[in-house]
Amino acid sequence: MSSEVDAPAGSGTGDRAELVASFADALRSTVVREHVSLDEAVRMQHRLVEAAAQVMGSDEVFVEDYGQVRELATVGFGGGGRPRATARVEEVLARFFEAEDAVLIHGAGTGSIRAMLNGVVEPGTRILVHDAHPYKTTLPAMRHMGLDVVYSSFDDRAGLESALREKRPQSVYLQHVPQRLGDNHDLGEVISLVREVCGDDVRVLVDDNYAVMRSPRIGVQLGADASALSLFKLLSPHPIGAVLADSERVGQIRRDLSSAGCQIQGPHAMAALRALVFAPVALAVQNQTVLDVAATVNAEAGSGDYPYLAGAFAAQPGIRCTVLLFDRPVAEEFLRSAWRNGSPSQSVGEEAQFEFLPLFTYLTSTFLKSSPGLERYAVRVNPMRGGPETVLRVLRDALADPEFRAAAASA
């Protein structure tokens, strides 16, 4: 796997300026997936409620059962069933995301990715992934299946086409959100190219975490065989995920997870659906805050209330956020100041229901691994449910903090 940005060998002021400029250029060139507007988010909410009304548009919406209903069995002797309420929620998700079927999974995003891999990909076969660091729990899941993981840059169409023809993978795995600085490929175009070269013989899987209810369409709606997503990151109070695919593959996942302890019980399934209704509008408001914060900082960066900043970027380094780029290597010192001045220092599972205060934190590990030195110059701000006023107040207070000022002056 290649690195997009390498630090210059020197450490002088000129080298530092060159490094900061290279990071800024890379941030500008990194794709931000299309985000629905507030009006589109309202329509998305209404479509989800309509799908629910078609499935449970009566007092059934208040029925939350437990256990393994025999009529919903997936294995012999009436075993492997699930609660009726869980089955209804799965049907709502399948309708809303235009998939043939859906299954709820324990373990949020990671659990759904593992279930998707286990249900769609044959152990020991070859899988093609983007030439960037995958999410930290994805590669172990592939290795545990004995998969032959091969790499190709999805940003290079010609190179990807050659890899598909020469390496002949049985599966292709995509992450919906960008994985590294400089990523610029279009998800739908990559899926179309795989179909053009390989037809339906190759299974296309998409990790749609942090894209659901933000992007107008997710992997299965763009032609992929399966999508994995976390409902925990979409305001569910419980760590639940989902896999969307055709009935054959979803059926395989249900058979693999036919034990009673693997079932999502009715109350948890309904709680996830009720929370999901609010996610599109909340995320659209959050997106606008990201844009507003970046615009305000860029208007005054490097002076006044925003010293030491080289710029702000409304970016998507795995998660939609505002990236703050400093003109000197003070990112760690700044974060400690932000944590003293109003930001939490930890996350429950970023964007979980329990988080509403703006979070000042490190860039995601996948981005940092591909960009040596970036961790010293850049941080990100996820506004969560906060507005630009709150984000900017914490930012100003952190920049004015005497301990941070002393560290910045000597950097």
Automatic annotation (TrEMBL):
Keywords noted in UniProt: Aminotransferase, Transferase
Record domain YhfS-like C-terminal: where: 303-395
Keyword Cytoplasm listed: no
Pfam families: Aminotran_5, YhfS-like_C
GO molecular function: transaminase activity
InterPro entries the record matches: Aminotrans_V_dom (IPR000192), PyrdxlP-dep_Trfase (IPR015424), PyrdxlP-dep_Trfase_major (IPR015421), YhfS-like_C (IPR054718)
Aminotransferase class V domain residues: 87-254
Name listed for the protein in its UniProt record: Aminotransferase class I/II-fold pyridoxal phosphate-dependent enzyme
Organism: Nocardioides aquiterrae
Lineage, broadest ranks: Bacteria, Bacillati, Actinomycetota, Actinomycetes, Propionibacteriales
